[in-house]
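>> Question from a student workshop board

For tomorrow's exercise we were told to take the sequence and the ligand below, predict the bound structure, and bring the output to class. My setup keeps failing. Could a helper post the expected result so I can at least see what it should look like? The ligand is adenosine monophosphate.
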Amino acid sequence: MIDLIFLGPPGAGKGTYAKELVKKLGIPHISTGDMFRETAASGTELGNKIKEIMERGDLVPDELVNEMVRQRLSKEDCKEGFILDGYPRTVNQAKALDEILRDLGREVTAAVFFDVPEEVVVQRLTNRRICPKCGRIYNLLTMPPKEDNLCDVCKVPLIQRDDDKEDVVRRRYKVYMESTLPVVDYYKDAGKLHKVDGTLGIDRVVEEVLKIIR
Ligand code: AMP
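>> Workshop helper replied:
Here is what the output should look like for this input. Compare the format with yours to find the bug.
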């Protein structure tokens, strides 16, 4: 069983590395951010509330996130492991996750922290573009689409996430520093923390993570 947690500021590349590792490890990539974006787009009352929180760059309340993760990790496809991306973001969530996993008779294998400075994050995220159809991630500077602003696969125009605008990115980074750095210490104290330099290229970062698992 490989129960992995990816930690690091928004823009550290967690989603990108996770997608590569899914191919190599055959375990699901679970992104709470993606799950909330889906809920936010649903047009329900809950969805609208979450949309507002996300547009401010703030965090969704712990109870809501914890319950959503509990349900997701209980699903059949998580039997061999999972990569959690964007969760836990607070110590309260980290404790809840320990409890969720204990109830399932398992525990965190490793927490991988991808270290990236604020200015790199701002540069990466303000240049990030996404295909609204297949979810493929591009970067106008480092991973541009072949044709101007069109998805290589779907050929539909790429979009920018509302929370990838510079002021919101800086706010998310600040929120991250305040609430998530204690989570890093939490896993350090548990002897489960592994640091990886998130400014290395994708291939090298993925290689580092595979080394940690082995
Ligand atoms: P992300 O794509 O991981 O940057 O998440 C986008 C937004 O979703 C965050 O800015 C939060 O508003 C919300 N979110 C995602 N994961 C969590 C979490 N574990 N706890 C609270 N809010 C979250």
